[in-house]
Design brief:
With about 220 residues, the protein is an alpha+beta fold. The protein is about 30% helix and about 30% strand.
Length: about 220
């Protein structure tokens, strides 16, 4: 092999990418990056949607648990728990009367819900003029103090006004027209809640919902 042939061979072995090869590599790299970016965005959207659903369920569950804890303390301590010689009456600040009023959207009752004394407890749905979504709020005020309760716990985006259902001792539904308030022994609670944020896994017009149903026995 002649010297100039070796030189030519060495020059050819060091040849770089052509413009066409470089452009082709960039196109392939761009396509791969686009696929990866789209996949990451979908994962992030799904993660955000799942977090939203979990948060909705947890918030609803916490509010439901709070209502049930309150209802189980309804009517405690009752007048029957005090010695007649003590002079206690149903109107005493340390005696709980139990249910004061009941409807499908609002409950008012007395009970020692946290060990600090008998409170008047109000749980009610605030329904806008146009209907639900509604806000269910809970407020308390010590019976010894009286007055307007402070509503410091609430659940937003409740989609149904039929939240409370009352049952008598035999399990039949309580009728406000024919039955006395004192005949209520169990109260059912239904929370149908919709997230304010759409489910990005489906569409921009689909909103996650959660429904929780439970029941508490009351000392009424």
């Amino acid at each position: 092999m002649q010297p100039h042939d070796k030189a030519a061979l060495g020059l050819g072995s060091r040849r770089g990418f052509s413009l066409l090869e470089l452009m082709l590599a960039l196109v392939i790299l761009s396509a791969v990056m686009a696929i990866l970016t789209n996949g990451i965005m979908q994962i992030e959207q799904k993660s955000a949607s799942d977090v939203n659903k979990v948060g909705l369920a947890q918030e609803s569950r916490q509010f439901m648990d709070q209502i049930l804890r309150d209802l189980r303390q309804c009517g405690f301590p009752s007048l029957a728990m005090f010695d007649p010689a003590s002079g206690a009456t149903s109107g005493s600040s340390y005696v709980a009367q139990g249910l004061i009023s009941f409807s499908s959207t609002a409950i008012q009752f007395e009970g020692d819900i946290d060990g600090s004394g008998v409170s008047e407890v109000y749980i009610q749905a605030v329904v806008p003029a146009g209907g639900c979504p509604c806000t269910v709020q809970r407020g308390t005020v010590l019976k010894s103090v009286g007055g307007t309760p402070a509503y410091y716990t609430e659940l937003d985006n409740v989609m149904s006004q039929n939240i409370f259902t009352a049952y008598k001792y035999d399990g039949t539904a309580w009728n406000s027209s024919t039955d006395a308030l004192s005949s209520i022994k169990n109260i059912g609670v239904t929370l149908y809640v919709q997230s304010p944020f759409p489910d990005t896994n489906q569409s921009s017009t689909t909103y996650p919902t959660t429904t929780m149903v439970s029941e508490a026995r009351v000392n009424n």
